[in-house]
Amino acid sequence: MSNGSPFFITTPIFYVNDVPHIGHAYTEVAADVLARWHRQAGDDTWLLTGTDEHGQKILRTATANGVTPREWADKLVEEAWLPMLKTLDIRNDDFIRTTDDRHGKNVKKFLQHLYDGGHIYAGEFEALYCVGCEEFKPDSEIVMGTGEYEGVKVCAIHSKPLELLQEKNYFFRMSDFQDRLLALYEERPDFIQPASARNEVIAFVQQGLKDLSISRSSFDWGITIPWDSTHVTYVWFDALLNYITAVGYGENEEEFSRRWPARHIVGKDILRFHAVIWPAMLMAAGIEVPKSVFAHGWLLVGGEKMSKSKLTGIAPNEITDTFGSDAFRYYFSRAISFGQDGSFSWEDLNARYHAELANGFGNLASRVLAMNARYYSGSIPSPGTITDADREIQSIAERAAIEANKAIEAFQIHEALAHVWTVVDALNGYITDQEPWALAKDESARERLGTVLYTATEGLRVLAVLLSPVIPRATEKLWAALNAESALGALVEQNIRNAGIWGQLPPGNPVEALEVLFPRVESSS
Ligand code: ME8
């Protein structure tokens, strides 16, 4: 559809050992908001997500459940991971599974290419492995256990004992790329965002890079190493390649050059894989490195990183069943500075839902449309003479659209919403000040009433467009009530970068009453 500039955005591919929680949903929503915005700006957008299905963690879970890993993965994808995308209204363009044929065969091509280029060698190895992380742990992430694991070396993230592995492995000569990686971070300061994440990675690489073990021979749930069928590919090496196998690497050159390189959105827990190992792999293969890697923070529940293994996991539908998917999308986009950790609490969600969505935005939209119905028989009046107060609304809307777009381009989703909300607040203040209900009682103020209602209704048009990437359901309802489609086209076709250009809704356009967009939620406590 689009011939705008390419915008290929990815989420991590998630492990299917368990069902999703709101941490996974958070990443999906952030990537989807960014993708929807860029799509609506006419950029050649592609949102990729998917599942990571190989490795010991999934093998063990499947075995414990008495099924094959493939059966387990199929079940979890169908019953949990795809439904999560639906629950959250994620408009992904593709969903890759690492068990897909398109992935496996091109992972082998990539490996063979590196092997032929002398980047891989066989060696002996002995190190401590965390199955939770699917990683040989560096000393800095090994701690002594407490409680039931007293005296045992455990993973600093999972607090579970590490396993000593002694195997013949194939190694990727990652240490060869240390200088090129440091030069990359230096030359492209935006390659890793935010700045705190960049600094952490630079410090890590400056300490010196070791070669990376990229195969395992003690189990067979993985992609076979093409030159040695007794080994399977290390699950992270396999998983990272999804970002290129999904867009045609190895088989569709045209698609690949159209999409690649990507912007990766990841949680900070997996930053190093994306900002160190992944670009080194690509450099070795002679492929362009990603455009950027953005590491967002953790959702904390009760001060701890939310996770299923620590039993703090909350399922996305626990929130959407009560508040709806728009509220989920809005809350996590607005309440957490993208790139920082953020605490989730039901109280905060409930408070923002009522103050911002129900009262701030929903109520504004319903009131303005009701006044069009009451005072102008459901057709938008023509504006008359424009005063400073009206001009102020126009300029706030114009500025909000420009600033929100800038914020989105810098991955600052929360700031974009704060800019959009200046329009919500300004319109609420405007209506209080202008008192259209009082103007309606005075026949001589008829022209002024028309100007006020036109201004407020056109303000809703701006809001519908700017908010559609975040709250697609509510804004579609608003668009329908504004009858804007017949005059301006479908909501998702509105160029979001032009949203602030004033005066797009034609006077005389029929409008309808609007159902309550965000009904009050009775607190159960
Ligand atoms: O790491 N807060 O998969 P995974 C915020 N398969 N985000 C969270 C979170 C929290 N408390 N918990 C999880 C893997 N996430 C690999 C990725 S990519 C080539 C392979 C999100 O299922 C966040 O995006 O453990 C984090 O990076 C990801 O889930 C980890 O998902």
Give descriptors for this structure.
about 525 residues; alpha/beta; Rossmann fold; Isoleucyl-tRNA Synthetase, Domain 1; 6-stranded parallel β-sheet; 4-stranded antiparallel β-sheet; 19 helices; about 15% strand; binds ligand ME8
What does this entry look like structurally?
With 525 residues, the chain is of the alpha/beta class. Among the domains are: 1-97 and 297-341, HUPs (Rossmann fold); 346-498, Isoleucyl-tRNA Synthetase, Domain 1 (Orthogonal Bundle), CATH 1.10.730.10. 48% of the residues lie in helices and 16% in strands. It is built from 19 helices and 18 strands. It has helices spanning 22-40, 56-64, 69-87, 101-116, 178-187, 195-206, 235-240, 242-245, 253-259, 271-285, 316-323, 325-335, 346-376, 388-409, 413-434, 436-439, 446-467, 472-481, 484-488, and strands at 6-15, 44-52, 94-97, 120-130, 135-136, 142-144, 153-155, 163-172, 192-193, 212-213, 215-216, 224-225, 228-233, 263-267, 292-296, 299-301, 304-305, 342-343. The chain has a 6-stranded parallel beta sheet, with helices on both faces. A 4-stranded antiparallel beta sheet has the order 5-4-8-10. Strands 11-13-12 form a 3-stranded antiparallel beta sheet. It is elongated. It starts with 5 loop residues before the first strand and ends in a 37-residue tail after the last helix. The mean pLDDT is 96. The structure holds ligand ME8. Ligand ME8 is lined by residues 12-15, 23-24, 26-27, 52, 239-240, 242, 266-267, 269-270, 298-299, 305-307.
